[in-house]
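Pipeline run #58 for the internal structure catalog. This entry was flagged by the ingest filter as a single-chain record with no existing model, so it goes straight to prediction. Upstream metadata was stripped on purpose; only the residue string is passed forward. Reviewer on rotation: M.T. Logging verbosity set to normal.
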Amino acid sequence: MAIAATTDDLAEDGPTDNSEQIYTAGQWQLAWRKFKQNKLALYSGGLLAVLYLCTLLSGFIAPYERDHRFPGRDFVPPQMPSFLSEDGIHLRPFVYGLKTEYEVGSGRKIYLHDTTQRHPIRFFVSGDLHNFIGFDTTLHLFGTDGGEGVFLFGTDRQGRDLFSRVFYGARVSLTIGLVGVLVSIILGSVLGVVSGYFGGIVDELLQRLIEILRAFPQIPLWMALSAAIPPDIDQLKTYFMITLILSFLGWTSLARQIRGRVLSLRNEEFVLSARLMGASHSRMIFRHLIPAVLGHIIVIGTIAIPQMILAESSLSFLNLGIRPPMTSWGVLLQDGRSLTTLYYYQWLLIPSMFIIVAVLCFNFLGDGLRDAVDPYSKPK
């Protein structure tokens, strides 16, 4: 009766579907129906898809390569494209040229618009050589003619376009979360299921190992493990080793949660029936128990990705993770550690906004998935 009541609730909350389809729907169909009702999670998933698409096409979207320098253009404030000038309305957006002056007293360089120079923004232009989906090309989404650049997010202390560096940094900051969580899910799922399934001495050993790992303060442990990475090794190897470090520290929480789920499932009828039919331990674990907790694993993995992103950004911000010339959002935030820099050049904190948006979207998506894997629960 409880199940029938809750499925009626699903029928009322969803669109005008035939209630018979709800009664005969499978677990994943009910989960998708419940997930679609959470608009915030749905929009967050769409925004994350756009972010990862931009990451894939970062070389094309960015008008310049990540290390392209503009001499004499350090700390240029963000430029806003305009359609309106003294001559009237223009169909093509443009940015004004820049002229430099020096602030009286401090001697700080400041930039003013040179209204006598207009640089039209053109689309699908030729520029720096980059890799576009496996092919080397000079095609970029937009750019300007001549030597003057367009700086939508401003420039850093070396005259590099921050907009381009943010999209190149997304390659590391967003993918390290996926790779790290994948490794953590494999470790946490298998060890959590093994711990809950066998129990006894196996459970005791694994739980004590988890407690030892979780007893260490995170930041000092990150620092100790990151310090073990030689500073002169290849950047790709550094990326791989940072991912392994984060994965090594991130599987314990998932393992404990999966262990608790398996403890409640190992006396269920389908598990007892498989045992009576002579199923081996490996078949029990990989064929029955892991699929039974797969929805929970997906939810925990989704929530763990922003933790990986924040961990990488923290390590890189402290100069213990990804190091220049490789770029990540944490590396870009290193320029914002000075109070003087923050006072005059606030746009250097723009990468933090991308971190906040990505983390919030993953959290909203995780909340939506958590509700969806329990389709018979009533909406909050």
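catalog note: Residues 1-17 have pLDDT under 50 and may be disordered.
catalog note: Residues 70-160 form one domain.
status: ready for reviewer M.T.
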